[in-house]
Amino acid sequence: MEDDREWMYEGRIVNGMFSNEWGDKVDEFVAFALRHPECVNGGTAIRCPCTLVKCQNKKFLNVETVKVHLYRNGFVPDYYVWIYHGEKQVHQRCSSSVRMSASETDQMVSDNMNHTTYHRMVCDAAGPEFNPDEEPNAEARNFYDMIRAGDKPVYEGNSKHTQLSAAVRMLEIKCRHRCSQAWFDDMSNFIQELLPQDNLMPLDFYSTKKLVRGLGLPVQVIHCCVNNCMIYWGDDSDLNSCKKCGHARYKQKVRGSRNRLYIRKLKVPYKKMHYFPITPRLQRLYASTATANEMRWHSEHHMEDGKMCHPSDAPAWKHFDGCFPDFSSEVRNVRLGLFADGFQPFGQSGQQYSLWPVVVTPYNLPPDLCMKEEFMFLTVLVPGPTNPKGKIDVFLQPLIAELKSLWGVGVQTYDISKRQNFQMRAALMWTINDFPAYSMMSGWSTAGMLACPHCMEDSDAFRLIKSGKQSWFDNHRKFLPMNHPYRRNTKDFIKNRKVTKQFPGVRSGDEILKDLNNRGLRKVIDVDAEVVNAAISKTCGWNKRSIFWDLPYWREHLLRHNLDVMHIEKNVFDNIFNTVFNIPGKTKDTYKSRDELNKYCRRPQFAQNLVTNKYPDVPFVLNKSQKKDVLEWVKKLRFPDGYASNLGRCVDAKKLKMFGMKSHDCHVFMQRLLPIALREFLPNRIWEPITEISLFFKQLTSSSLTDEELRNLDEQIPVILCNLEKIFPPSFFDSMEHLPVHLAYEARIAGPVHYRWMYPPENT
To answer: What percent of the chain has pLDDT over 70?
Structure first.
């Protein structure tokens, strides 16, 4: 195999046909991978390095399928060093002028032991390489010693498992099959009987955990009040009952007589949470040659043509640097984002149980690494069975305490790329949640007529007479220029109403903090919080003082909590699609909506016919034959592999609707298909605003954006929403149809959307 590997990205197709020479090179690549059994799964499967999102060296496929994928899609970019197929990682990203030959690679691999899958898992904790000859700090040195321990075979002559990989394998089996500790101990004793006497296999569950604990990724199990009032942590760690509700900390069990109470010798708490400290995992990023250099990328790269391609290009990041120059002067200090979302681990049909993981991710990394699964760090696991709602702050206390420590003091960290120790600090930039969780994190209620966290008390939402629901109809003219004709329009919006006021702008952190202090809102962890906050929340949109205000720098952020574009886009699409298709139970064009329509607008043509008591058809709803045509078209659609799911499976030809569409399905349909699907069936005055909102989301979610583009979007979106208000009834416009008016502003402040939406954590 030649040293130069430019062939991987050149010469695949010649004169419209696949090149035989390129195919021979692919055969050599596959043969090279098969010569390294540690990279082969099941004897014939290797990682597929094609460009498909689900592949990209993540998925094992048989070699023939890999060849087909490579012919069809080509190699993933910059894969000049085949680290996932047996070739040793190098300290720098290889360029075309620096290559490692196959013979050199084979020699390097043969000089090392054959790493097992679980040895590679252990190495992943530190990174693919480390240099033990340097002078790391004591903690890093202990970790490197731990990695060396992973190289000792279980017994002399065994080449399949090391002591550490065997321990990890046993723990993995225990978790996967939900085995008890007693089973683990019995199985360990039985394995001892099978192995030679001088083996290194751990003797029981305790010794196995003790061995693996040396990886330095600890977990803290913290007892909680069963009612989510408090956690038994810090100064409260010795309490035996909740200081708020008085509920006992430990379970009690009655044996024998009903009147005799027996307290277990082993105290079992009613509820417990798990906390995974983030400091060791951030230190690992600098202990690895694969990521240590990349953690400085945010300060070393330069914007091209004024395009923001990373949060470090955005004003929010630069503003924070200006506020805290002592923090930004050390480029290795870490910027973090926080995600929180609930899910049901037992599925929709199983036991109802709401589990809330809190995930933290570093933003220092370049775009090809940032937000990837391996850099999503689980920090808090909030137990169920119920949604913690506003009490989630109770479970965030350990994380906030660690973040305060990382900001004020930092931690000594070994940077292997510079061969030096430094004091690493970290700052949380913002949180990313869906809209209900936005309220849980920020303390601003996202329900009711003050649901918008940007407009706050300046909202013009109102309650509809018939349906009793809140409507954000005619809530967007205040965002238009003062001379815009829509401001004087008294016919197409709320009748006889002109709009002269302007949106005052988003409040600063200092203004919000002053408001919280003036109102006297309490943190959830305060003893009197429930009573005090309940009384105050009746007069404003605040329901608590968020625990994030404990962070010394939180008030200086330009953006603290992100509106999630993923869920907003899905809700806007659902409303448009269900209304245009007149889906029963989901359409916004209902009888109540028609009854109240002319109480707010001048649209007599859609009023009820007093003779027939029927409502006339509206031009934005498709008839039966048109629905069939659209659904048949969707059913026949075919997308490139990995681009979208099979939308045909979502078509219900009998009920003339689509069902079971995931967020990404709605994302693709909204941006790519909706304008095409409705083009022939709707009048231009209706089709054009729907197309404009589709293009708005398409441009907003681009991977790179300029300030000028975002300012144009910020000017266009109020007009687009006003045009939709001229078409659809007031019941169509809930808070989700209002929030797009603020999305361009957030992107202009914080950078590209794909670093601040929920797709990455939900796919992890």
So the answer is: 88
Query: Quick one: which of 649, 615, 630 has its CA closest to 581?
Result: 630
Closest by CA position to 225, among listed 437, 442, 523, 525: 525
> Which residues 6+ apart lie within 8 Å of 379 measured at CB?
275, 276, 277, 278, 358, 359, 360, 399
> Is 739 in a helix, a strand, or coil?
coil
Element (H, E) at 254: strand 253-254
Report the C-alpha gap between 23 and 20 in whole angstroms. 5
Give the contacts of 196 (CB within 8 A, at least 6 positions apart): 155, 156
The neighbouring-strand residues paired with 14 are 17
Query: How many whole angstroms separate alpha carbon 690 and alpha carbon 669?
Result: 12
For CA atoms 285, 287, 290, 291, give the dihedral sign. Answer: positive
Tokens at 253, concatenated? 């069990």
d(CA 528, CA 536): 13
Please answer whether residues 353 and 369 qualify as being in contact, where contact means their C-beta atoms are separated by less than 8 angstroms. no
Within 10 angstroms of residue 156's Cβ, the number of other Cβ atoms is 9
In sequence order, the 6+-apart residues with CB closer than 8 A to the CB of 265 are: none
- Separation CA 502–CA 477 (nearest Å): 8
- 153/166 Cα distance (integer angstroms): 9
Round the CA-based radius of gyration of the chain to a whole number and report it: 30
Quick one: tokens of 684?
């231009």
Over residues 161-188, the pLDDT tens digits come to 888 888 888 888 988 888 899 999 999 9
> What is residue 438's predicted lDDT score, i.e. its pLDDT?
96
* 53 touches 65 (CB < 8 A): no
SS3 420: strand
What contacts 526, CB < 8 A, 6 or more positions away? 532
Nearest in space to 394 (alpha carbons), one of 512, 243, 217, 556: 243
pLDDT of residue 151: 67
* H and E: helices and strands count for the chain: 27, 21
This prediction has a pTM of 0.79
Tens digit of each residue's pLDDT (9 = 90 or more) over 426-439: 999 999 999 999 99
Angle between helix 163-176 and helix 117-126 axes, rounded to 10 deg: 100
Sign of torsion over alpha carbons 324, 327, 328, 334: negative
Give residue 145's pLDDT: 67
pLDDT score of 306: 86
Q: What is the pLDDT of residue 519?
A: 94
Strand, coil or helix: 40: coil
pLDDT exceeds cutoff 80 at 119:
no
Give the closest residue to 452 by CA, choosing from 752, 749, 746: 746
Task: Please choose, from the candidates 738, 62, 668, the residue with its C-alpha nearest in 3D space to the C-alpha of residue 452.
Answer: 738
* C-alpha dist (Å) from residue 32 to 46, 99, 103, 105: 11, 16, 10, 10
Cis peptide leading into residue 385 (ω within 30°):
yes
Token output for 730: 């007031």
Q: What is the mean pLDDT of residues 659-682?
A: 94
